[in-house]
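lol ok so funny story. i was supposed to be doing the assay writeup but got distracted and ended up predicting the structure for this chain instead. priorities right. anyway since i did it might as well share w the group, maybe its usefull for someone
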Amino acid sequence: MIFDTAVCLRHPHLPQGREAGEILRAMDRAGVDRAALMPFEAVQRFNWREANGRVAAACKAHPDRLCGWGTLNHYDGPEETDHIAGLGLRGVRIFTSWGFTPGTGLIERFYVPIAEKCRERGMLFSIEHEGHVPTLGGAVYSDCIVADALPDRPVLMSRCWSWGFWPDYLAALQECPNLVLEVGVAPSSWIRRAAGEAGADRMVMGSWWPEQEPAAVIAHVRGLELSKADEEKILGGTAARLFGG
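and the output, tada:
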């Protein structure tokens, strides 16, 4: 099974993927069986509930193919996480696009309570890496803070595409055994190293379609010369385990 953990519904900049039907056709072209939709439009419009509602509606209409991430203004905290859970979405993804992220000293105050609520509701928690706002301890320090606070729950590092930050991603994986790495078309040598050192059972694919074609990510992973078992984990096995199916 191929499971794309990062597909945009109504991308704020690109015209593709305005409706679920177009996303399903893109999945079919690439051979993707399941995908996790994201309300990425919220980074531009700040229409958190409206965007989450659209994702939830698409997932309810196509439950065999689609599941969903919700998002929120992190200042709204656990209460909004309850609302996202009520929509039937499978996790919360915090977007840091366009500088929308608190300073390092505020991660524990705002991100950790949301992650704790996700644990309570049986949901996944993820932080998107966009722009990599410099923080004390490196670009992925926020993930480590949350992972340390919830050592029994997976924390997904999303959008790990910036070449210069792969040493940080790998160091974080080594430091926190509950971190999971989402990869798209990224440096081959670093992906192979992450699979060898951290394990492919801590890696998932995420295309961020329409930013990248799922088929390109699939071909990239298949061209890494990993074992067939590791390849299958990255392309779908790990995600199926995390999302529960």
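The first helix runs from residue 20 to 30. The chain has one domain: 3-243.
back to the writeup now i swear
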